Amino acid sequence: MCAAPHRSALAGARRRMARLGGTGGGIHSSIQHWLYPLPTGGRWTFVAEWLARGIPETRVAFDARPVHEAAASSAGPLWELPTPSDGAEYGWFGYAG
Questions:
Q1: Which residue, 15, 14, 49, 18, is CA-closest to 33?
Q2: What is the CA radius of gyration of the chain?
Q3: Half-sphere exposure of 50 (CA within 13 A, CB side)
Q4: Per-domain residue ranges of the chain
Q5: Chain segment 22-58, per-residue pLDDT in tens
């Protein structure tokens, strides 16, 4: 599973797509991917090509609003961070006992 990079690492960052897993058999398959950061805009174009299987470059444009809405509705903190002690450094070590 992929972990999202910290926001400060995104300045000028390239988009990344990672395969999360999938299933299939016979003549079908289903594969999940993780794309970060999500592209902006109301329409996206998915482009695929698999020359070894005789599949030429193929493009499909689609409305990206449902993707953004789903991402926004499921985003949130994993847990509440405690207030660090006075004089403690910030970051993960600031929360260590």
A1: 18
A2: 19
A3: 2
A4: 35-74
A5: 999 888 889 888 887 888 888 999 899 999 999 999 9
Q: How far apart are the first and last CA of the chain?
A: 28
Number of H helices, E strands in the chain: 1, 4
Side chain identity at 86, as an amino acid letter?
D
**Identity of residue 92:** W
pTM of the model: 0.51
Q: Tokens at residue 53, please?
A: 């299987």
| CA distance linking residue 7 with residue 5, whole number of Å | 6
Please tell me whether residue 65 adopts helix, strand or coil conformation.
helix
Q: How far is CA 92 from the centre of its chain?
A: 23
Q: pLDDT by residue (tens digit) across 2-16? A: 455 555 555 566 778
